[in-house]
Amino acid sequence: MSRLGQIPIKIPSTVECSLKDGRIFVKGEKGVLESHIPDGFRIDINTDTLKVEFIKSSELTSKFSALYGTLCRTISNMILGVSSGFEKKLELVGVGYKADLQQGKVLKLSLGYSHDIFYSLPEGISIVMEKPTLFKVLGICKQKVGQAAAEIIRFRPPEPYKGKGVRIPGQFLRMKEGKTK
To answer: In this predicted model, what pLDDT tens digit does every residue of 75-85 receive, in sequence order?
Structure first.
């Protein structure tokens, strides 16, 4: 049984939560998110707190007890996302590596290949360029922001000899020693 699930989730005054047809809807100043609620869970919404309760029964206990903490964190992340949003910073390390945002929905990446890479941003994701080699991936859904950042990193992951590639600033990268004579 999850200890996270037993803690009530606080709802800010700017966020509204509602239940309808086995789905939870979270509405805030940045947008609206929704998620499916699996069978075996009951959600009680008060004015400023939300409590997820696990219904114990013999056929559901083994199947859904693992989802208890996950469901609580998902709802908590939805509330945090519609109120303040999520961001991931990415930096490009390497000579000639740069990024450019075109028409607000296409990210052009020059990563040392013979061609440029064009990445179309998913729905609900935006990018803010700080420098040509440093940018932020922004959105209200934590899973989508992380997925978009992972897809961009996958175009040129950091290599272990010189550290060139796309990476999160401050990320630990184990460097290998080069050849010695």
So the answer is: 999 999 999 99
Does CATH number 3.40.50.1220 belong to domain 86-167?
Answer: no
The structure tokens 């609206």 sit at 32
Domains 4-83 and 86-167 share a fold: yes
pLDDT digits (tens, 9 = 90+) for 3-24: 777 788 999 999 999 999 989 9
Among candidates 86, 76, 82, 27, which has minimal Cα distance to 49? 76
Q: What is the CATH number of domain 4-83?
A: 3.90.930.12
Burial 19-41 (b: 16+ CB within 10 A, else e): eeeeebebebebeebeeebeebb
Using DSSP's 3-state secondary structure scheme, residue 150 falls into: helix
> Model-level pTM?
0.87
Q: How far apart are CA 130 and CA 151, in angstroms?
A: 20
Tokens of 54: 């696990």
Residue 67 amino acid letter: L
Helices (H), the chain: 58-64, 67-83, 142-155
Residue 108, C-beta contacts closer than 8 angstroms, at least 6 positions apart? 99, 100, 101, 102, 116, 117, 118
Domain boundaries, the chain: 4-83, 86-167
